[in-house]
Amino acid sequence: MHRIFLVVVVTVLAVAMPSRFGGAEEILLRDGRTFDVTVDSTEPDSIRVRVEGSTSGTVDVPARSFDPHSFYDVRSRHMEATAKNHLQLAKYCAEQGLFARARSQVEKARRLDADYVERKMALPDLVEGVASSIVGSAAAFLAKGDLDEAKRYASTVLTDFPETPAAEEAGKLIAKIEVARAADEAAELQAATEALKDQESSARKALDTEVRPLVRRYEAARKLHDDALREKSTSRSIEMFEAAAKQFEAVLESSTKLAKKHEDNATLSKEINRARERVTADAVGAWVNAGGVELSRGSIKKAGDYGKKALALDPKSPAATAFRSRVELAAATSDKYWRTRRR
Question: Residues 191, 318: one domain?
Fold first, then answer.
């Protein structure tokens, strides 16, 4: 239904709008298309744009059809500066994962009317709302079989919002994800064994004496990482994430050497390189989670340092690049009203 509605909006805009006109500003929709419009008015859930040269005059574009950053930009510039409007925009930002901008809007609301903010108890509701939304995304990824994304979302709740009711559900999802991953890895290892069954004995021996011990080291690092997600002490959880990341990196180094050693065996080399991709993603995740805990404590510089370690492992990692953006946005705003973890 959402996709159908978006197509309708795009069609109306494309047909009604000239390519450029005076006083226009650009809006970006979720599907990546841009349009030049004149903003007539804004509401918490929509933007009314004026379509010059059209008999319809204006078009109401719902917030869900916008790219979140574009909606934020337009709404923040055109709305009346009231505490209520800022809180409503903060809620939208939080639901879209724009945490630093949500914090900024809450602070603006407090400066305008601190009593109103306290009366509405906006921040606790906001924090729980976004945590629940992230858990929902994690569950959706798990249902689709995307275990890496499911774990990334669930981990965000446990590192950034551990005091919320949603954190308990995130912990349960982590357990389900690990069960699913263990089953997948067992199947992959069995498939590799079968693929090497008819090959020379040296390849089969390498699988038993070199690959399997590496798998056990990897599983130990992953267990340490998952224990860190459940750790209540922030200082201890950071230490555990660091240790897990270093163990992942050690496994990665060993697997790199192993792949080079057996590069002449296409089947074995392929399996090792596929495993290396997973280990790299887990190492990135461990550094990002350590940074997430620091960010939730307001330690922006330390969070940035962990983010750099993640990017050094994989500069194109979605988790690492997204975390870098979070740190950059947090650096421009105060964390005073967004800290949820105990020190």
Answer: yes
